[in-house]
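Give me the 3D structure for Ribosomal RNA large subunit methyltransferase H.
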Amino acid sequence: MKLYILAVGNKMPEWIVAGFTEYHRRMPKEMSVQLIEIKPEKRGAAKQAESLLLAESERIRAALPTHCYCVAMDELGKGFTTIELAGNLVNWMREGLDIAFIIGGADGLHRDIKRTANEIWSLSKLTLPHGLVRVLLAEQLYRAMSIIKQHPYHRA
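Predicted structure for Ribosomal RNA large subunit methyltransferase H (156 residues):
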């Protein structure tokens, strides 16, 4: 099973890079996480949000590994607990699925990405900076794996 995080944004602040790297490093080898950064569309006064999101969605689709179960990350998606995430990971491992978590850029994700995703999840009802989402997602994946492996990192 492979986990992919496709994230729009490619010049993240050092604290984002350091946070993601820390949890990426901690993941067990049998549950590798690969970050695929998607170049954001250039913003400009003449460009409408729809055309920006459409261009980014095309880049996401081009970078998306084949045959992945896709989870779009969006603040309006389904909320879940870390225990539920661990349960989902166990189920996905049993099914032998590779999972792609898709994080939009500053303007979110195009509606077609959300429409074609297998699931839409939310890490919070709050609107979060897209760079921070990759760190939070990496930490939650690590925490879920610690639950599965009965490692004491997670304290319920």
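The helical segments are 14-26, 49-63, 82-95, 111-116, 130-148. Let me know if you want a second pass.
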